[in-house]
Amino acid sequence: MNGPEPRHVSVLPAEVLTLLAPAPGQVFVDATVGAGGHARLLAEQLGPTGKLIGLDQDAAMLALAKPRLEGLNVSLFHANFDRLGDVLDEMGIATVDGVLADLGVCSDQLDLADRGLSFQQDGPLDMRLDTSEGEPVSDLLQRIGERELADLIYQYGEERFSRRIARRIVEVRRTTPLETTQQLADVVRRCVPWPKGRRHAIDPATRTFQALRIAVNDELGALERLLKQLPQRVKPGGRAALISFHSLEDRLVKHAFAVRTVWEVLTRKPIQAEEPEVERNSRARSAKLRAARRRMDDSENDE
User: Fold this and answer.
1) Average pLDDT score, the chain
2) pLDDT at 301 over 50
3) C-alpha to C-alpha distance for 51 and 58, rounded to whole angstroms
């Protein structure tokens, strides 16, 4: 395997394989290739007669994953997962046997300071997962109104101090543009008290960073568009599995799979990592895996 070894560790790998049950000769989509961990596991099960189609909106992640997937029958595309249908049409494929989407940010993306996805190291306040389009967070924070900003932080970050944070951001930007992750993190930390008596409490800036990342990447809108396409793109009897990392995503997935005329739910409750995996990979702690099988009938089209 050539190229640098990715730091990212895929979550719930055994559970993903069990629920998706890839078999030789089938066609699967990994809609969020990331560093290629899940993609390699799936492609190995599909074998040389099968096919894995990999999508990622971050070209840097595709470059990182490519060496990891050498020798396997994989086609990679620089595309957000909401373009699943376009990619399949481009390949002349109507339906596939399975789709996986891991909605978490890759650890290797967090390591890139110039992406601005983490406040663990200082960098430009960008947060775009595809730097070829959209506006960085620094531009968003410079133009958005206080009330809209507060609503955004509350809705996407579930941050109860959102109004205090928005007010302070607007005060600061009048004299100093917020252009780095450290600037923003410091502003937020002055507005949100650290939980008392909790040794492993999350950083007060975490929810605000999450909210802004979701906003500039339209993550929930893209997820809704993916979920809407799945019934037409997963063949009857085929399977779909999605791994979410916060309640906003998990709620959308749960509701989409609840349409009983379309899906047979394979996970009555979301599957979460056992403690040994969490000890090896702390990122797995918040992961929730839901899966469903496409029903064999087309009764939903009769309505």
Assistant:
1) 90
2) no
3) 21
Beta bridge partners of 99: 29, 240
23 φ/ψ sector (left φ>0, alpha ψ -120 to 50, else beta)? beta
Instruction: Tell me if 67 is assigned to some domain.
Output: yes
Domain assignment present for residue 6? The answer is: no
Q: Which pLDDT score is estimated for 5?
A: 54
Query: Residue 188: what pLDDT?
Result: 96
Name the token pair of 39.
């993609």
pTM of the model: 0.89
Residues 198 and 231 in one domain: no
Contact 52, 74 (CB under 8 A): yes
Q: What is the DSSP letter of 246?
A: S
Kind of pairing between the strands at 74-78 and 288-294: unpaired
Is the Cβ–Cβ distance between 192 and 168 less than 8 Å?
A: no
| Same domain (yes/no): 212, 120 | yes
- The residue among 158 and 4 whose pLDDT is bigger is 158
Q: For position 299, what pLDDT does the model report?
A: 46
68 and 163 belong to one structural domain: no
> Which residues constitute the domain of residue 205?
113-218
